[in-house]
Design goal:
The complex is a heterodimer of chains A (about 325) and B (about 350).
Chain A lengths: L6 E12 L2 E13 L4 E5 L6 H8 L7 E10 L2 E2 L5 H10 L1 E4 L3 H4 L6 H12 L4 H14 L5 H4 L9 H12 L6 E5 L7 H18 L2 E6 L2 H7 L2 E6 L2 E7 H6 L4 H8 L40 H5 L5 E2 L8 E2 L10
Parallel strand pairs in A: 3-8, 3-9, 6-7, 7-8
Antiparallel strand pairs in A: 1-2, 1-4, 4-5, 9-10, 10-12, 11-12
Chain B lengths: L3 H6 L18 E14 L9 E9 L2 E3 L3 E5 L6 H8 L7 E6 L2 E2 L5 H8 L2 E4 L13 H11 L6 H14 L16 H13 L5 E5 L7 H18 L2 E6 L2 H7 L2 E6 L2 E7 H6 L4 H9 L50 E2 L7 E2 L8
Parallel strand pairs in B: 4-9, 4-10, 7-8, 8-9
Antiparallel strand pairs in B: 1-2, 1-3, 1-5, 5-6, 10-11, 11-13, 12-13
Amino acid sequence: MDDAPLLRVRGLVASFRTDAGILRAVDGVSFDVPRGATVALVGESGCGKSVTALSILRLVNSPGRIESGTVELEGRDLLKVPERAMRDVRGKDISMIFQEPMTSLNPVYSVGWQIVEAVRLHQKRSRREARARAVELLRLVGIAEPETNVDAYPHQLSGGQRQRVMIAMALACEPKLLLADEPTTALDVTIQAQILELLRELQHRLSMSILLITHDLGIVAENARHVVVMYAGRVVESAPVGDLFSKPMHPYTLGLLRSIPRAGAHSGRRLHAIEGLVPDLRKLGPGCRFADRCPMRVERCTREEPDLAPAGAPRGARASRCWRADEVSP
Amino acid sequence: MSDPKADLSRPGPGPPAERQGDGARSPTLMATDGISKYYPVQRKIFSPSDRFIRAVDGVSLRVRRGETTGLVGESGCGKSTLGRLILRLVEPTFGRVLYDGRDITRLSQRELRPLRRRMQIIFQDPYSSLNPRMTVREIVGEAISIHHLAGSRAEETARIAQLLERVGLRLDAMDRYPHEFSGGQRQRIGIARALAVEPEFIVCDEPTSSLDVSIQAQIVNLLVELQETMGIAYLFVSHDLTIVEHVSHRVAVMYLGKIVEQASAGALYEQPRHPYTRALLAAAPVPDPERKRVRLLLAGDAPSPMDPPPGCAFHPRCGRAIPGTCDTEVPRLEETAPGSGHVVACWNPQKD
């Protein structure tokens, strides 16, 4: 086994042209996804986490575009391969599942037809073989009576079942990397637990890497090995999951952790809130993007933006983009 | 099979309202008494319907003055319909709503109008619940003029300015349109609109579900602060147990149109008795990587309310179901101990 990460993203920049100027939704993002592990990409709406995932698959469409950076899958820079070759990567090496399974499935085809299409796009199989594979995949993702439900249409299934179908399609060619963009946000909490359990089990069985994009730190704690926290297009902190929760080294991460209501902890009725709002990405100053809302702000923070620098001890495992990273304390 | 008339003779499944309380607390502001909403299922066009979806089925719930009652459940359990029944935005099939001791179920819309001033609602989606063609001034000012709460235009403007300040918006928001605001700010506009008529009761229907966690905390804190300073009572409807626990004095758990457990917030979270409540609590992801996951996975989906299982509606997914009892007889809400105020509808509730 080599130790090189499966996916290595470096200096990724993706921007959108708007009436009010260029907006860099992803601005110099770097992180790794090791083999067989789950890395969580965390942040609030508009922080650039979904655009990062779409950039990995080169699915950022006009008026957006990828400006610069590298996305290396097993050493091959996906931003340089021809579009034709990229089509083989999508679905075969890297698959993606989305938040809303109703809008990601085609309502006029049976779920079996859609899985068969995904299988036959990348593998030389007859219709009959592909259909057998579809039934097998539906069984793998825990759909009851797969022989019957292979002919069901999306509207005949519940939200949880549709997400299972999406996962079956994504896994059709046993990808090395699954990009899961808020895969359970639209689901009820008991169904969410089922889907996350399924993903953990499939990851184990297929030794697949997962980039889990979520805003829910509870999901992060229970599923990820490493966490990348994004804010306003930047990575602000990156750390192994245990370290991040026990000793966050960026004030934004700390603020996020403290704003979650916790069951059983009756500690007064007020929640810790991060005051203020996310900055407008078209009107950024020279300083740290979190400075306006930061309780630890000093004069330097509004003047000069810190780099994402190694932090904590031992050096190397984690990084923080804060002038006062070592002073952050829960 | 579901003849709604048969249910009329059946007493409501909830205990009398008097027994639900926690002793001497603030007086009841709103109580429902076996409130139900059945929707007919049209199987053939033009043929009379003989089947019903029991969206809300015999619910007795109370909200005390200045307090928060939390209402938790998954999608389709009837929690939003219950909130709308209480405000009579949806007409009940059976049962009564008592507001400040008065039965408002049979009041005409005209008779209801003075009461509308006292009860308001905040919606989940601040994007679709604000008219995009109205300025913030018009949105917040509409109810003020309907209820003649300001003597002059200048007075109305002053009142709107005061409300905006109250919910943490800047005064220059007044002449802007909803699309110019973020989700959290829009929710503040929705709250300002609800506060415009000085209500004493607000139904909060998933008020933070579409917001980011840091913004959710801002809105929750605002709601808590308004309660503390203005004595507003809330019915806080949400699918998120942790947020409900945080804001509520009492919490009711709904499953398939019925309340299955109700207790003080502390008791419900520390000693949940109903297997469904326990499953909900176990399914919520906990932001602590050191904690061992407790495996209590519920199998399958919630059944369709059109075709609920016989007996206890939860029995097909329940690990504690007793064959011959749970699948044949509907359990009633009963107190776990006399005077505890903790009620549960289960044949085999969890003991300590």
